[in-house]
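#help-structures

NK: newbie question. if I give both the sequence and a SMILES, will the prediction place the ligand too? trying with magnesium ion
OV: yes, paste both and it writes out the complex. here, I ran yours:
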Amino acid sequence: MPPATAETPPGRILIVDDEPVVGDVLTALLASEGHHVEVAADAASGRFLLEDGGPWDALLLDVMLPDADGLDVLRWVRERVPDLAVFMITAFGSVEDAVAAMKFGAFHYLTKPFKNDEVRLLVAKAVQTTRLRVENKDLKRALEQRFRFEKIVGKSHAMQELYRFIEQVAPSRSTVLIQGESGTGKELVAHAIHRRSARADKPFVVVSSHSIPTDLLEDNLFGHTRGAFTGAAGAKPGLLEVADGGTALFDEISTVSPEVQVKLLRVIQEKEFLPLGAIESRVVDVRILAATNEDLKTLVDQGRFREDLYYRLNVINLTVPPLRKRAEDIPLLVEHFLGRFNEENAKDVARVTPEVLERLLGYPWPGNVRELENVVERGVVLARGREIGVDLLPKDMLATVSLPEVASLPEGMGFYDAVARYERQLIESALRRAGGVQKVAAEALGLKPTTLNEKIKRLGISV
Ligand SMILES: Nc1ncnc2c1ncn2[C@@H]1O[C@H](COP(=O)(O)OP(=O)(O)OP(=O)(O)O)[C@@H](O)[C@H]1O
Ligand SMILES: [Mg+2]
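OV: that's the protein plus ligand as structure tokens.
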């Protein structure tokens, strides 16, 4: 009995054929190669073994079965186990069957009577191919797993560190303050914390306080009893009650009014609050997360945010890095958003051109990932072919300062005035591209933020 050679790994082979002779011959032949072989005598038991006896490396399937057409079984297999190599067993000379089988994606076909060497070789090759495919898939999945965390995409060192930190803090009940510029993914991070906690199957609610009047925010948060105010026809539970057992994210916490800040402090300390019009306070078990794109500590120092609340929120502090500090995530994010917007728009845009990628990598992204997301969406929607070219990038992204060839001073202007004018143009353009964020513009210009700020004041540039 010759053993399986080094280049033919033993596989698991399923034969579906109702003729006992065929099953016996093939079993003997393939088992002598070291393969594990099982035989099913009809389509029903074949299907059963395919679903519950796998994984299989190859399937040898008779075209004519007592209880089904082999081609129907083939179609079924293609849907369930698309990676499985399938050989159709046909009688010698039935070319039509063979052609039909190939059309349905059969790996190959074997004609009776079998040529032993051919069967050996083809099956060995199929086993190898299947193994490779599975390995590649595993590898890809492993890579994908490393480069995403819940719904967050990013492979940069900074993001990997963030994933590890989230994993570490998620299981506790501690309050987490999530800081980061606008559009960096703070809400995604908050959601990931919730998903990785024991509260994952309880509600996650987002309380946005930005540009919401205090009355309305309080009503949203704490709810009211019936008749609490004119027009309160029925009782309404607040978001905190809705989130009981789960997690609440206070978005843009810096915009919460002093009145709400006090009440929030009480929620965190006493775990209770009073709905409008209620006599007894409600007790809830809610984990509080807060997000901000302003530096809360500075607001505290300026007396615009309660210090005690700040310390209550800032038990664990987490900062999401801006996109310009992790440009290596950009290609991955582009791919991620291409996939999403292709699907949403039923399009098939495969890539951005190398020139576009270069622009994306060099752009300072004042709006961070949200801005990139919008750029890709726009590109996908407008693309005619399978590529996004420079023409599909927003115009203000392309606005670059072109250095004019200065041979002599403009009429009636002195040297220092001309330099100042040029400085002004550079700064205004950088500010425009940075969406008015001085920190971002300074970085793009290679200046310290304080230096840029001085220049802005000196030149009287309006931001
Ligand atoms: N790392 C990321 N991977 C995938 N999508 C991301 C990532 N970061 C942000 N996004 C997407 O960008 C958009 C903005 O993210 P999100 O709302 O979490 O930002 P934010 O920091 O809360 O912004 P803001 O401060 O303006 O509220 C969302 O559509 C989000 O899905
Ligand atoms: Mg947000």
